[in-house]
Amino acid sequence: MSVQIVKQPNNYCFAGNPVSFVFSSSTNDEFRVVINVAGESLELSLYPYGASAPYRADLELSDLLQKFFDVPTVSDSDIIVPIDNFGLSYSISVDSATLFSGVAFQGGLSKSFLKMLYDSEYKDIFNYRLNNKNNQFLFTTRSQSKNIKIRHSEISSFIFIHPGTYINFISSNGIVVSTEPLIKGTLCSMNLKIILDIYEFSYEDVKYIDVFTDNEEYSFRINIIPSILSEERYLLKFKNSLGAYEYIDITGKAYCVPESNEEYSWKSLSAYGFFEDKRDRVESRSVLEVETGFKTKDELDFILDMVHSDDIYIIYPDASEVKVLVSVDNIRYRNRQTVTNSIPLKIKEVVENKYLSPNINPYELSTGGIFDASYDYTFE
After folding, report:
1. Which fold has domain 1-107?
2. What pLDDT does 202 receive?
3. What whole-number distance in Å separates Cα of residue 124 and Cα of residue 115?
4. Confidence of residue 369 (pLDDT cuts 50, 70, 90)
5. What is the CATH number of domain 109-227?
């Protein structure tokens, strides 16, 4: 009995989209397939179909792979640092022979974009840009193009597949920062904050950063936009459609609109011989209704990706971070945008509270207050 794979995905794929395999078998007898993923081996039976040889059998792994993803570990210790748990390695074996091995990522692509890629010469997003050193290869949903726009307050680490070459960063005022090659295919984070610290300039001085590979090949440009001045500012951190975490700056006015659950009440006979209403404590949750502030068309599309996310956190001005659900009611903006627009968001905490506590300054929970352990209680 001879079994081989005749249709398979790219070695890199997104588990949010179909991860489909087609096997060819010389007989229509059942055969066993072993899926090796995250240190576990799962054995499945496949039953070939067809009127005559070669017989076919189908296998779809997206649901299975999504059960094994873990939270990525991202370090900010250097400009480019390898990361763990962002990609999920898996392989397929038949009769102890490995027929396929690849890496899956959380997230996925829209159906319309999948169709566009399939009809192009690239066939998938990894050939197009995510594993293409000549294109913009970051796991970001801010843009598919070679020009990424990011506000200074939203700067964080980007995730990417290392091309195995030198990566050079050249600022708008000509300063070059170079990084050493790593093994091609290593999953890494790229920390823009460290790059800006090396430049020792503010965003007024560095308008953009050009990224080059192989010392000479231009890959893409990161345009740094000044943050919007505002009385209120909140950051939303979310997992984008490609499985990486990014930030959105929210600068509109925010209103607290707490939501309470229905109360459970009953009649109880009082000590005075008449009935009175009683109830349990009512559970409620914190809700913010806030305008995003005026955004461009690209930023509005980025915000919609955030609204669809399954993992969102709000970062308050005191740096506290709370997991939330974000929704939008009655969103409406011009498809051909000539002016900036603002979108109303409803930001709801994921937990309900039966008991409430007064707010506290986070520094009061630290034994040293605003000072660290090295402070000797003297001022110069």
Report:
1. Immunoglobulin-like (2.60.40)
2. 52
3. 9
4. low
5. 2.60.40
